[in-house]
Every structure is written in structure tokens, then in C-alpha cells.
């Protein structure tokens, strides 16, 4: 139990998604820091790296129209990516990325299916998954559902910062400031970029060969 003012409060229970057991800044610094604080209790860690995957990378829409001129131009970049695989922690994951179509609502959806409930993450306002705020809901097998608002104390920037791209940039600058003042690496860093470029190559290779790919190390 932690003490806030004169009142004793139960610890805040935290689940971490995307930590990698053997490496990564989150595992090396963030998890130990949370575990050292009595007001937090880390109750679940989901490892997010793919151990193996199969994929299809395709170009479906071969033409597009330039909005400003109305000109029709060829498209050469893939606009459909579908992959399925097993994560390092043993969980199974599937991902579908679709481009080249009219905007749809919601713009993204993350669905985490557990033994007792399903957690669904959608955009709270229009925008990409890494920019917009999230709307989180919990659904149980008995049909009940509840919205889970994100407590303001978990936002690293003041509430006055507008949602969307301004807040996204503010969070990045705050992380840079933390890294500079503490002398510790910023997250994400160059190693993160390298790891995800390796993942993209792995996805393309799985699609080109039709062979399930193991993780690049």
C-alpha cells in the first residue's frame, strides 16, 4: 500500500504491452523503475516482438488521382499488408494494414483477447495510431462493456497542449529533454529503428518467398 497525504491507497496496477525480455530500453529501465515504486504494481507484461511470421505484401490499387490537379498517376508502393505470427511470449498476433481506399471509421483498431475479457483500442479522434488519443473499452463474455478513460496523470504533457499532432510533438520534445537531463538514451532510439527495419524486411521476405520467417537477430 502507498500513502498519499494522510490516506493509504492501493497500488496502481499496470500492464505493459510490447516489452522484450532480452533487450530494449523498456525492459532495461522502464520496468525496473516502475517495479521500484511502491505506488505501482506491474501485474502483466506482454512481449511484443515477433518470433516468427507469415505475410502477404500486395499492390492492389495501381492508380491514384492527384487531388490538386485531377491527374491520374501510377502507384508503385504496396498498399496492402497482412501478417500473422507468434510473439516471443507465445501469444498469437495478426495485423492488417490497408491503404489506397476511402477513409473509414475507426482509422485503426487494436484488439487484445484475454481469458476473461477483451480490450479494444480505437482512436478517440481522427488520426493515426501514434498521434491521436486512444479510446479504450473492455468487453466481457457476459456481454457487459465499459469504457476505460486514461487517467490524466499518465499524460506526460500538460492538459492544455492540444490533442493530435501538437501533443505528439510535445511528447517527443519532453522525451528528448528527459534524455538530455538524465544522460540516458531517448526512447525510441536508433536501435529501435534498426529493429523495425529488420521486421519490415522480414515481412517482405515472407511475402516474396511464401515461407514463414523467424526473427532476425
Major β-sheet annotation: 4 strands, antiparallel
List how many beta strands DSSP finds. 14
Low-confidence stretches: 1-6
Which sequence of SSEs, written as H and E, runs from N to C? EEEHEEEEEEEEEEHHE
State the CATH superfamily name of the largest domain: Dihydrodipicolinate Reductase, domain 2
Give me the Rg, rounded.
Answer: 20 Å
Cα separation of the termini: 41 Å
Query: How many domains make up the coordinates?
Result: 2
CATH topology of the largest domain: Dihydrodipicolinate Reductase, domain 2
Number of helices: 3
Molecular structure report:
The longest helix is centred in the last third of the chain and has 20 residues. Helices cover 23% and strands 34% of the residues. It is built from three helices and 14 strands. It is globular. The protein has two domains: 37 residues, no CATH class; 164 residues, Dihydrodipicolinate Reductase, domain 2. The relative contact order is 0.12. The N terminus is likely disordered. It is of the alpha+beta class.
Key phrases:
217 residues; Dihydrodipicolinate Reductase, domain 2; 3 helices; 14 strands
Write the layout of secondary structure elements.
Layout: E1 2-4, E2 7-9, E3 12-19, H1 25-35, E4 40-47, E5 50-58, E6 63-65, E7 72-74, E8 80-87, E9 92-98, E10 110-113, E11 118-123, E12 134-139, E13 145-147, H2 165-182, H3 190-209, E14 213-214
Parallel strand pairs: 3-4
Antiparallel strand pairs: 1-2, 5-8, 5-14, 6-7, 8-9, 10-11, 11-12, 12-13
Amino acid at each position: 500500500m502507498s500513502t498519499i497525504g494522510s490516506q493509504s491507497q492501493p497500488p496502481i496496477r499496470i500492464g505493459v504491452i510490447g516489452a522484450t525480455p532480452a533487450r530494449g530500453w523498456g525492459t532495461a529501465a522502464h520496468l525496473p523503475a516502475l517495479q521500484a515504486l511502491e505506488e505501482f504494481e506491474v501485474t502483466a507484461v506482454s512481449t511484443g516482438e515477433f518470433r516468427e511470421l507469415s505475410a502477404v505484401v500486395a499492390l492492389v490499387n495501381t492508380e491514384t488521382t492527384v487531388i490538386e490537379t485531377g491527374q491520374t498517376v501510377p502507384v508503385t508502393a504496396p498498399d496492402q499488408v497482412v501478417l500473422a505470427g507468434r510473439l516471443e511470449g507465445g501469444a498469437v498476433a495478426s495485423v492488417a494494414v490497408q491503404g489506397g481506399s476511402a477513409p473509414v471509421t475507426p482509422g485503426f483498431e487494436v484488439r487484445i483477447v484475454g481469458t476473461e475479457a477483451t480490450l479494444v483500442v480505437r482512436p478517440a479522434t481522427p488520426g493515426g495510431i501514434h498521434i491521436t488519443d486512444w479510446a479504450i473499452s473492455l468487453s466481457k463474455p457476459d456481454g457487459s462493456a465499459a469504457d476505460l478513460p486514461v487517467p490524466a496523470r499518465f499524460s506526460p504533457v500538460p492538459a492544455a497542449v492540444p490533442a493530435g499532432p501538437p501533443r505528439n510533438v510535445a511528447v517527443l520534445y519532453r522525451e528528448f529533454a528527459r534524455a538530455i537531463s538524465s544522460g540516458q538514451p531517448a526512447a525510441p532510439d536508433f536501435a529501435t529503428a534498426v529493429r523495425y527495419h529488420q521486421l519490415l524486411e522480414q515481412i517482405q521476405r515472407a511475402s516474396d518467398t511464401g515461407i514463414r520467417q523467424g526473427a532476425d537477430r
